[in-house]
Amino acid sequence: LMLHGQATALEKDNAISKKNKLGILLFIIYMAVYSGFVGIGVIAPHIMKSKILSQNVAVVYGLGLIVLAIIMGVIYNFYCTKFEDQLNIKEDQE
């Protein structure tokens, strides 16, 4: 079994606190939306049978959750890259 080393040298990440805050914020938003899905399923399952966009609410909401997760991943990647570019300036450039 051959293991390889790190692909790149790890440096100090000055953007870590902003990235953590953004990740937690996005997680809380997703958790709230997902909790709504679970809540409807537990408290009022008859709503999940209702039709919306020629599909039942369960299918539309479930696919919406998947799309939301993808969109949030793109948002997270965009802003984390922006934070890193702004805050991770090499010492020799300062």
Task: Based on the model shown, name its key terms.
94 residues; mainly alpha; two-stranded antiparallel ribbon; elongated
Write the SSE topology.
Elements lengths: L15 H28 L1 H4 L2 E2 L2 E2 H31 L7
Antiparallel strand pairs: 1-2
Helix pairs in contact: 1-3
Describe the structure.
This protein has helices at residues 16-43, 45-48, 57-87, and strands spanning 51-52, 55-56. The chain starts with 15 loop residues before the first helix and ends in a 7-residue tail after the last helix. The protein is elongated. Strand 1 (51-52) and strand 2 (55-56) form a beta hairpin. The protein has a two-stranded antiparallel sheet with strand order 1-2. With 94 residues, the chain is mainly α. The protein has 3 helices and 2 strands, in the order ααββα.
Brief digest:
The chain is mainly α.
- Listing every helix as H and every strand as E from the N terminus to the C terminus, the arrangement reads HHEEH
Cα separation of the termini? 43 Å
Mean pLDDT: 89
Question: Taking strands numbered 1, 2, ... along the chain, how are they ordered across the largest sheet?
Answer: 1-2
Shape: elongated
Give the DSSP E fraction (strand runs of 2 or more residues). under 5%
> Uncertain spans, ≥5 residues at pLDDT below 50?
none
Structural class: mainly alpha
Number of strands: 2
**Helix content percent band:** 55-70%
Largest sheet: 2 strands, antiparallel
Radius of gyration: 20 Å
Note the total helix count. 3
